[in-house]
Amino acid sequence: MPGKKIDCLLIHVPKETTDHGIQMTFMAMGVFAMADVLQKNGYSSRIIHLGVEKIADSEFSIEKYLMNNDVRSVGISLHWHYQSGNCMSLVDKIKSIQPKIKVILGGFTASFFADEIMRDFRNVDFVIRGDAEIPLLRLIKAITGNRSDLSQIPNLSWRRKDLVIHNNQTYVATEADINRLIFSNFELMEHFDIYSRVPLILRRYSKELLLKHSTFFLCVGRGCPVVCSFCGGSCLSQRIINGRDGVIYRSYESVLKTIEDSVRAGIDRLYVSFDPDPNREYYLGLFRLIREREIKISMVFECWSLPTLVFIDEFKTTFGSGKYSGIVLSPDTASERLRQLNKGFFYTNDDLIKVVQYLKSNCIQTAVYFSYPLPFESTDDRDRTDSLMKSIKRELQNYGMVSIQDFDLDPASSMYLFPAKYGIVKKVTSFSDYCNTQRKRKFLPQDLNDTGFKNTYQKWLNLAAAEEKVSQGQVCFTLNSYEDASQKALQAVKLAPQETGAYLLLGSCYERTNSYDDAMNVYREALDIAPDEGIFYLRLASIYSALGEYGTALVEANRAIELGYDDSGVRLLVGYCYEKTGDFAKAIENFTKAEEMNSDAYYANFSLSNCYREIGQIERANKEMDKGYLKFKKQRKARIPESIG
Ligand code: SF4
Question: Nearest CA to 492 among 515, 466, 516?
Fold first, then answer.
């Protein structure tokens, strides 16, 4: 008989597709807090992530899990609409295996469609709408106590015989409520270590594809003060879904506890996606405390509005040395008119460029996201976005990436609620539609049919298809299947010759198989298409260096630097080439720069030591050797991740 007795098993279900991999791999942040509330109140709870389980054990099945454990009820987190189809399949599977298990849904999508779900999906016993910690606790109490009158449980949708009842939504978590919650009881999750290393998109369930570094999504607060037309988490959507007006923050103490617990659990990077105040006073205070407590961790910060220079400075001082730190910007479009019409926080392109340049000058990794189709977008807007993307890419070089995404239609977003106002035609109007049309276009601009849409956005559609091929190819590369990776890269080039990632992949495959001439031809071809992309000069330089042609390597590497492609790694290569050609002064100059750019780079000190020894400065040589050795020792002492599995 069963192993664990579990009063409530909380399950995260990723979205599985046959052609686009496994998506929605990260869990809603509240899941940990809910499990902890149950546990603290005497109800056993576990968290499982179906994808993580399949990585840990290729033979995993929910059937076996339910057979092997004594599970009383299951809470499925249906937060993002992308999960809908997979979540509902799971619901049916659970009921077919063990009909007695109570199935509870929660999360934004389940809350918004609670009425339809309760009416049309009989295998769902309950939906909890909005904030769920206290309602779930009271429901589990009722289920374990075999109570049938559930009318006093806030936020609960349930059935009395065939009648669907929606209790009042009176639980809306306050700051005091969320300060009581613990978001870091990682012990409650099966295989948390694997979860923390799962990439955002997984190509297949394999330990080999896990990231080397670990990430945890940090809950800082709830709510949003503005409305972006496309967002299902806007202040309007939050009012409808959660009954929340305004924004609440967790206290510094409670957030710091989560951060310190994360560090103790070996987390390398925190991910923050809560940024309601353009002045970010709260974060300036939090960052100061993180520094005072000498917490060393990386952070990725998603900016909802444009970051101020003060914020960037504080971010850099606190997390800048973090290997995995970065800032995310989402201008969405190059059209200021469209930004004004669609986004809650407005900024000009000039301000955006200034911020991008400032981030680059501070060596902060930056991701910049654009999207299409935006309501009211003209072909001129589209072309302007295309050229802004190119100029930002040129600006960032090795300090960032620029990406464009095909918009989906969020339930409860303004576009979903008021399609006419935004000049769009919806193709989804119900939860069933979301379950059934996972990959199909969910809306179109009023003046475009499917063909018109394809013609208008063909270039970006091809780009997306090419990126998909590159991403598949990268998986093959990671698994050492260079032939397959090359094929994917060639397919990507065919789809979108401007997708330079494909050339990089193809060249890397040739490099791995020692076909240096072929690799160099590919990189030169890429430079014909994108002459500003310093990475290709750098790759040429590194091949020439490997072939012992240091003079030519220096020419190529210096071209990369002139284009702004400059970091510690580039300087090490340049220093190495100068060292090999006997120009120790220039070698020292570049190794010193490499150390300035990355104070952890102990190889810069070892190389400096060699150069000083060559020119007879033995004392300095010894000093650099000691410095390098100390850094090396420190890094060896730093946490070495336990092997996974
Ligand atoms: S996308 Fe806009 S509406 Fe949505 S959370 Fe961000 S700022 Fe708020």
Answer: 466
